């Protein structure tokens, strides 16, 4: 629907600026209205800057993400608002809101963080901005990508866990409204890893914030995820003999493919459904002394721990799923040594034990997971699978996870999906509200041998706006910048099956089927 209106914005100095609707309903903000936002009054909020950035002129003011620097030159002109929000006396939540100067699509897309956050996600904001969205990101209330901020700062931990994203969302919508004279028609969340956990938090705690939510590879529940990581590290690094050097990963991967690749009907280097394969690293046991193609007895034992879930030894309850078959070439992500993955180590040092010198070698899976839960699962864990309030508003949740994610076991997403479907009351009209897309051969939020490039927003938008339920999303894989394979991703539990004719590198020759 095309809307047309003129909004008067009155600046502090008395000058009047215009925001006008162009043909087609796209809003063009008149020059000067950006700078005027610095006078905007919002609760608990200090607007530091509001300035127009010319096309291609943006340079991050902080180091930000390591991949940044490229890509910003193609960004259109936008209004850049930087603010700090302090819902508590110990809060200092930095946020940025970027508003396209022309061609706004009328929607808001907020983007998530990775790890312990601590930076604004400029690269992801840039992608949303280029697609025409007003966008926002927060550092979640602290600076620096490690967990030290949480030590004896419980309010900062709450900000990191969920409050910063909610505060950002409410304020960003108000800023959008002030700039364009119109609130966003739809609001979307797009995040992976910690951004996936933030996604589930929003659906659970603040169901009115977003109409559509993308939860990629959710780092959830965080206390169990980090307990599993430390537990694996104990098995791998307890002594020199148990450590598996990266030079042995290819041999393990070859043995896995030999056992599992063809089970899905195609010997293509990808394992469509790792849950159907049973692999015992014991088949690689050295028979004639150690060598690069075999595992010693101690290494077999370590590999068996890595490839199985962490379970409570008394009750048998699963604490966190294990790495799937197919991940072997990427085991170095968590298991390069000499100690546990830093994010997990910091969870126990700064949050659970409040002791920066805590020795991970003393970790006891059952005892210390229970302690971590007692202290912070209620804050950090997005563990409530009842999303009825979200579905009653018509909210849509799109989850995805790479089957060869080497840092967050992918069955964590399957588990949450299953529990949420069981627990949540579907909307009155019976509309589908939850979809999960498992991605064969994809690593953590990207990468890996499988088709790992896709646009979840292009599936979520039509779902929210026209009711078109995503069933099949085409993903591509590229080598040296050239696409060399496309495949459909299928709505779980369906998987892609080859039709039997044509190239196996063409998504058109695959259908989605229940296995
Ligand atoms: Ca295969």
Task: Characterise the protein shown here.
Helix 3 (154-180) crosses helix 4 (194-205), helix 5 packs across helix 9 and helix 5 (222-237) runs antiparallel to helix 10 (365-380). The protein has helices at residues 33-36, 122-130, 154-180, 194-205, 222-237, 249-260, 297-306, 332-335, 342-352, 365-380, 388-392, 411-423, 457-466, and strands spanning 6-10, 16-21, 27-29, 45-53, 78-85, 93-100, 107-111, 134-138, 186-192, 212-216, 310-311, 318-320, 396-402, 434-439, 472-479, 482-490, 495-498, 510-513. By secondary structure, the protein is an alpha/beta fold. The chain has 13 helices and 18 strands. The radius of gyration is 24 Å and the shape is globular. The strands form five sheets. It has a nine-stranded mixed sheet, sandwiched between helices. The protein has a three-stranded antiparallel sheet with strand order 1-2-3. Helix content is 29%, strand content 20%. Calcium ion (CA) binds next to loops. Calcium ion (CA) binds at residues 261, 264, 266-268, 270-272.
Poorly predicted runs are 1-28
Tally of contiguous helical segments: 13
What gross morphology would you assign? Answer: globular
What integer is the average pLDDT?
A: 92
Structural class of the helices, strands and pairings?
A: alpha/beta
Across the major sheet, the strand order is 4-5-6-8-7-9-10-13-14
Largest sheet: 9 strands, mixed
Bound molecules: calcium ion
